[in-house]
From TrEMBL:
It catalyses: alpha-D-glucose 6-phosphate = beta-D-glucose 6-phosphate. Keywords: Isomerase. The keyword Isomerase applies. Belongs to the glucose-6-phosphate 1-epimerase family. It is an enzyme of class 5 (isomerase). InterPro entries: Aldose_1/G6P_1-epimerase (IPR008183), G6P_1-epimerase (IPR025532), Gal_mutarotase_sf_dom (IPR011013), GH-type_carb-bd (IPR014718). Pfam families: Aldose_epim. It comes from the Bacteria. Its EC number is 5.1.3.15. This is Putative glucose-6-phosphate 1-epimerase. CDD domains: D-hex-6-P-epi_like.
Length: 298
């Protein structure tokens, strides 16, 4: 494991070979990001939150959206990219939304660059990191950037008793406009509408994702988002995730959020590989969750 110090120089090459390189760069005084360049893609991530900010396979536009007003500071979640919501999703006790993984500093593990892409491992471990969730755990995040992007979380319970978690890989997908987004496969799923506070099971066309929209769909298989404006499709496969969460705040909620720039809500749709109900991990056992993303031109 390579603990990474915040660097005082602008750029610091961590690893480089004939296929690509990983460079550390400063985002702010105490916040750095890793810039990944490779023949097949470019990408960015930060150890704060173990957070993927960007992935752009060659020949395609950027896949993830990040707010121009995203805050890069300790203890704050970054608005955009792929926040890791864990060990809880949504509000929990008085401990705030979405858990501490997205606001914690992760450690950098192994990096491997080869002709197929760049693999980066990130580690978060701790004990009683929140008084609301007082367990001992380790979580390895395995990121594989290539013409596809895959992200796996391997969670191990190191406590002497079982623990429970809920989660989401809270991907912010960059879109031409939410009004142009269709996700036809969500039609077959039952859902909880968190805004209207109703549940539904009748097919409801998801042919427009204009916010405010905040729905939990009970569907565990692959989704494809079709963007008729940019003529591209984003396919997301997932494993060990029982729900999809579809979220866009819409103009009024976004106006009250300090870290979304004006009209930013017109630039993304969140489609989150989630477990909104508790998953139990027996002591000394592991659970793995993952998503794999691919983009296509239409
Ligand atoms: O503002 P955050 O804590 O990042 O949460 C942003 C959103 O995340 C999820 O999509 C939830 O379903 C929403 O209810 C929540 O508003």
């Amino acid at each position: 494991m390579l603990p990474i110090e915040v660097n005082t120089t602008e750029f610091n090459t961590l690893i480089k070979n004939k296929y690509g390189e990983v460079v550390e760069s400063k985002l702010s005084d105490n916040f750095s990001e890793l810039l990944l360049t490779h023949d097949l893609f470019s990408a960015r991530l930060t150890l704060h939150g173990g957070h993927v900010l960007s992935w752009q396979p060659k020949g395609h536009d950027e896949v993830f959206w990040v707010s121009k007003k995203a805050q890069y500071q300790d203890g704050t979640a970054i608005r955009g990219g792929v926040p890791i919501c864990w060990p809880w999703f949504g509000p929990y006790k008085n401990a705030g939304n979405h858990g501490f993984a997205r606001t914690s500093v992760w450690q950098l593990g192994d990096i491997d660059i080869n002709s197929a892409g760049i693999k980066v491992e990130l580690i978060l471990e701790g004990e009683s990191k929140s008084s609301s969730w007082p367990y001992k755990f380790t979580m390895k995040q395995v990121l594989m950037f290539s013409t596809t992007f895959s992200q796996q979380l391997i969670i191990e319970n190191l406590s002497h008793k079982d623990f429970q978690f809920s989660s989401a890989l809270h991907s912010y997908f960059s879109v031409s406009n939410p009004a142009n987004i269709a996700i036809p496969d969500l039609n077959s799923a039952c859902f909880d509408d968190k805004i209207k506070q109703i549940q539904g099971c009748a097919p409801a066309d998801v042919f427009n994702c204009t916010g405010p929209i905040d729905k939990i769909y009970y569907h565990n298989s692959t989704m494809t988002m079709f963007d008729k404006g940019w003529k591209r499709a984003i396919e997301i496969k997932k494993s060990n995730s029982a729900q999809w969460v579809l979220w866009n705040p819409g103009i009024d909620i976004a106006a009250g959020m300090a870290d979304i720039h004006q009209q930013g809500e017109d630039e993304f749709v969140c489609l989150e590989a989630a477990n909104t109900n508790w998953i139990t991990v027996p002591n000394r056992e592991k659970v793995a969750l993952s998503q794999e993303i691919q983009v296509y031109k239409l």
